[in-house]
Amino acid sequence: MIEQDTKQEQWQNHTVRVAVPASTANLGPGFDTLGMAVNLYSWIEMKVSTETKITLLGDELYGIPTDKSNLIYKMAQLVFQKAQVTIPDLEITMYSDIPLTRGLGSSASAFVGGLCAANALIGFPLTDKDILNISTSIEKHPDNVAASLYGGIVVATWDGQEANCIQITPPEDLETLVVIPEFQLSTSKAREVLPTGLSVADAIFNISRSSLLVAALSLGKLDMIKTGMQDRLHQPYRASLVPGMQQILEQATEQGALGIALSGAGPTMIAFVDRHSVQKEQLEQYLVDTMKDQGINAQAMWLKPVTEGVIYYDDIESHSFMDVIKGEVRL
Ligand SMILES: Nc1ncnc2c1ncn2[C@@H]1O[C@H](COP(=O)(O)OP(=O)(O)O)[C@@H](O)[C@H]1O
Ligand SMILES: N[C@@H](CCOP(=O)(O)O)C(=O)O
């Protein structure tokens, strides 16, 4: 106990800051398996305090609780519990650019961010693999959490106890265009529409596409992405939840996409695009217009795959948290 108190004192003035990338899960056929980190971020600052205070900045975190039921606070307590440390009060500040409940992994980034910030706060007692296992056991989708944690393209598995993951460096010429509808669609709602069984023919279809996609992304064979992103496991069932989705899945490659998929559980759709493509504007217009024709306002955004996952900021003294958020400190 004496030793623990001394340790707590040691952490008393300690502040940590992390940035966590958003993720796009499934990449079409790799349901609950494939993911990729993209350059939209959540930032968390955490320090030991005498009273818990949670401050959420920006528009994206509207409605998230600021008491001890906050997910970041809860993740921190989980880390302290695993490390057998008692730190009841924390000052947490968070800012996020990741739209909530749209299929860009906001929940996974919050789980991973809370765990990683707390782990850094007490001197990294947990390994990244521990954090992968803990966050997957809560979030259940290793595709999102592995991408946010490690960055890059991830191929991940989860057996209910242990997650495993291999990273692939995204092809240099790969860019993505997301079209983000104005409405939210929770992952749980988008999982409710899935069937409980699958035909062998559909299973073969998805295994072959998913494997082809992994090979194509590993070797930079962009011409195979169109076939590799096809899916029969979840998208056909989710299409009814996203107006315009079916049409976009059928036509986007004619409008300049290398391949197209629902991002995570949606409603965002993600097009893979060759950064040299001359059809970028055409594709952007097509995606926004197709949703608009269905009465849905949607925002198009060009995102780059990122190879780095969670980023820890070392030089806390020289910069304010606002400098970090505004991008004045290099990611
Ligand atoms: N920073 C955060 N703090 C607390 N809860 C969060 C945070 N970010 C996301 N969440 C929770 O995750 C939910 C969205 O998760 P989900 O439906 O899986 O969609 P997605 O992860 O695609 O954004 C939000 O409605 C919110 O409850
Ligand atoms: N594999 C999951 C991914 C959910 O991703 P999210 O970004 O929508 O939370 C699924 O498709 O249900």
Automatic annotation (TrEMBL):
Positions with a binding annotation for ATP: 99-109
Listed GO MF terms: ATP binding; homoserine kinase activity
Metabolic or biological pathway, per its Swiss-Prot or TrEMBL entry: Amino-acid biosynthesis; L-threonine biosynthesis; L-threonine from L-aspartate: step 4/5
Reactions the enzyme catalyzes: L-homoserine + ATP = O-phospho-L-homoserine + ADP + H(+)
UniProt keyword annotations, A-Z: Amino-acid biosynthesis, ATP-binding, Cytoplasm, Kinase, Nucleotide-binding, Threonine biosynthesis, Transferase
Coiled coil start-end: none
Pfam families linked: GHMP_kinases_C, GHMP_kinases_N
Domain GHMP kinase C-terminal span(s) in chain numbering: 215-280
EC number, as in UniProt: 2.7.1.39
Function: Catalyzes the ATP-dependent phosphorylation of L-homoserine to L-homoserine phosphate.
Family under the similarity heading: Belongs to the GHMP kinase family. Homoserine kinase subfamily.
Protein name: Homoserine kinase
Natural source organism: Paenibacillus kyungheensis
